[in-house]
Amino acid sequence: MRSRILPAILLASSSLFAQPSQPPLDPEARLQWFKDSKFGIFIHWGAYSVIGRHEWARHRFQIPQAEYDVFARQFNPEKFNANEWMSLFDRAGAKYVVITSKHHDGFAIWRSKSSDYDIEMTPYKGDPLKDLAEAAKRRNLRFGFYHSIMDWHHPAYRPQRAWEVKDAKDAKLGGNNSQYVDFMKEQLRELLTGYGDVAVIWFDGEWEHTLAELKRDDEVYDFIRMLQPNTLINDRLYERKPGSRGDFGTPEQFVPATGVKDPSGKDALWESCVTINMDSWGYNKYETDFKTDRDLIRMLVEVVSKGGNLLLNIGPKPDGTIQPEFVTRLESMGEWMKVNGESIYGTKASPFARMPFFGRATQKDNTLYLHAFAWPQDGQLRVPGLKNLIHSAYLLADPKKTPLSWRRDGSDILVNVPKTAPDERASVVVLKLDSAPVVEAFLVRPNDKGVLTLGVESSEIETRFEQRAKKENALGHVFLTRWSRHDDIPTWRLETPKAGRYRVQVSYGSTRGGTDRDYVVSVGQQSVAGKTVNTGGEWVFHTQSLGTLSLGKGEHTLQVKSANQQGLEGVTLEKVTLVPLD
Question: Is-above-0.90 flag for pTM?
Answer without folding.
Answer: yes
